[in-house]
Amino acid sequence: MDKTIGLACNISTGKLDANQAVSGGEYPFFTCAEFPDQIDHFAYDDDVVLVAGNNARGNFHVSRYKGKFNAYQRTYILTAKEGFNIDYVYYALKLELKRLREKSQGSQTKFLTMPILTGIHFRDITGDEQSKIANVLSVIDKKIELNNRINAELEAMAKTLYDYWFVQFDFPDANGNSYKTSGGKMVYNPILKREIPEGWEVKNLGDISHIKAGGDKPTGYSETQTDDNQVPIFSNGITEDGLYGYTSKATIEFPSITVSARGTIGYAVLRTKPFVPIIRLLVLTPYHSEDIKFLDEAVKRIGFENSGSVQQQLTVPQISKINIIYPPQIIREQYAGAVMGSVKKIELLKEQSRDLKALRDWLLPMLMNGQVTVK
């Protein structure tokens, strides 16, 4: 016999408006978005599952958290009652809310009401069985989380080196010394209205990269990888790197940077493998392949709100005219030599995480339905 979420959990909701997020706040602030914002005070300190109560596409995000946090008033906060494993509840909800979305295609439920949530069913098994299933899935998720932390550290190292060389201008000079600190010559640049190292240039993005806009969704694409559809499609989302689906043929073959043209304007992602960009994305492919990580870091530092894109859209002509500092080729090549190993490592870990997610998503329904058991 099945059990329901209402029988398994104590359920409450947050108290705050979504606009009470505080950038740089100490605590996570769970709203109906996939990932939490931040806030400077907490109202809860518990081991919980959080469920988004609103979503225009019917995709109600489920989060797992232990510690101090705060929550939006349309976010449900679930704690497990005695005899129920909170991790098992988390995975059961992820599966059943996905099924709810799939069943309501075309007339998607945009609000997850308390009666809908409390009435969600899952298989009635013992606490030990719940723990075994949750442990299998948790091991996979912990490895994905570890990969994400490693990638964040590698990204931070590349960013720090970029700042040191191309913002502070302490790249190694011909003698191996820090250029500006050791007295390297600086000259005033009238475009940037500040001093830059002698011999450096200022170029616009259109001079150093091919820029194009994403197109329409390919026909015959699929939401998941299939034998026929292996090439990722990206849109302007800032979750899962904007992954939209998969298709059969790439339109961008070389390492490039995608930039969100709407919504969160200027959100940039470096992509090393062939892909297809669709609407709301711009794609920058450097003319010199060794520039890819340099260009990525430069684009991430552009203040797009001050670059002529005050309207709610960034266009190819606008981004093409944006100026950036452009060092001599030998300096750019040295930077590439220092950071491209990390870029390759990041891509390997991303691929591993994608495979692990596919494995987890394949196992999840079979474990929950009892088709596969844990011994």
Give an overview in words.
Among the domains are: 2-124, Adenine-n6-DNA-methyltransferase TaqI, Chain A, domain 2 (Alpha-Beta Complex), CATH 3.90.220.20; 201-326, Adenine-n6-DNA-methyltransferase TaqI, Chain A, domain 2, CATH 3.90.220.20. Helices cover 34% and strands 24% of the residues. It has 8 helices and 19 strands. The strands form 6 sheets. A 6-stranded mixed β-sheet has the order 2-7-5-6-3-4. Helix 4 packs antiparallel against helix 8. It starts with a strand and ends in a 6-residue tail after the last helix. The mean pLDDT is 91.
Layout of helices and strands, plus pairs?
Layout: E1 2-4, H1 5-8, E2 9-13, E3 27-30, E4 37-39, E5 44-52, E6 62-71, E7 75-80, H2 86-103, H3 114-118, E8 121-123, H4 127-167, E9 186-189, E10 194-197, E11 201-204, H5 205-208, E12 209-213, E13 231-234, E14 243-247, E15 256-260, E16 268-271, E17 276-277, E18 281-286, H6 292-300, H7 316-320, E19 323-326, H8 329-369
Parallel strand pairs: 3-6, 13-17
Antiparallel strand pairs: 1-8, 2-7, 3-4, 5-6, 5-7, 9-10, 11-19, 12-18, 13-14, 15-16, 15-18
Helix pairs in contact: 4-8
Radius of gyration: 24 Å
Question: H/E series, N to C?
Answer: EHEEEEEEHHEHEEEHEEEEEEEHHEH
CATH topology of one domain: Adenine-n6-DNA-methyltransferase TaqI, Chain A, domain 2
Shape: elongated
Q: Please give the CATH class of one domain.
A: Alpha Beta
Taking all residues together, what is the mean pLDDT?
91
Q: Report the portion of residues in β strands.
A: 15-25%
The biggest beta sheet is recorded as: 6 strands, mixed
Q: Which percent range fits the helix content?
A: 25-40%
Alpha plus pi helix count: 8
| Major sheet strand order | 2-7-5-6-3-4
Distance between the termini: 22 Å
Q: What structural class results from the helix and strand content?
A: alpha+beta
CATH superfamily of one domain: DNA methylase specificity domains
